[in-house]
Here is the input.
Amino acid sequence: MANTSQPGHRTALLASAIALLGLVSACGSESGTSSAPQPTEAPRTTSPDTGASTATAVTTAPSDTAGSASASARTDGRCHTSELRAAVGRVDPGAGQRNFPIVLTNTSDRTCTLYGYPGAAFVDASGKQLGPDPERAPSSPRTVTLSAGKSAWAGLSFSSPQISGARTATPAALLVTPPDERDPIKVEWKAGEVPVGGDESSVSVTALEPGTGP
Here is the structure.
């Protein structure tokens, strides 16, 4: 009996094993189809390389423009002869001296500066200089800023010829040269005789100051 029942038992075991294997295969197939799909990587959109994609934009502040209020108010360099008008003011006599203000006025539409002493020379009608160049009186020059229409002055002084006894001449004009310029401005001279030689004939000029006279 024992020998006849073993083949049947083996057959039963084999059938069970086959059935179990089929069940496992079915479960594996179902698991493969019902699992969540793997995420797919979305295609990248490539933007044009601008070379500054990660840089912060830098803006430059606009510089002061010509024509702005601050630009027009700036000092723009020294005053040139062509931008100035010269005049000789009234005589201011005192202690045997004759003193005249030489006035330079800014006729341009810009702000400019004057520094130091003006040149001065008396000339006759033909343009020939009369007497030596004026001496520079001791003083402390300073920069004078002239906006449009503003003036600076320097003092022109000499001893009265009637007192000093110096040799005299009557100039036709006074040539005034602004500091650091070569071209003079011709001003008609209406104040009579000036010393041109001999003792006590020196003429002096002071450094420029703001205004039109003392």
The radius of gyration is 52 Å. Residues 1-7, 20-43, 45-75 have pLDDT under 50 and may be disordered. The chain is about 20% helix and 30% strand.
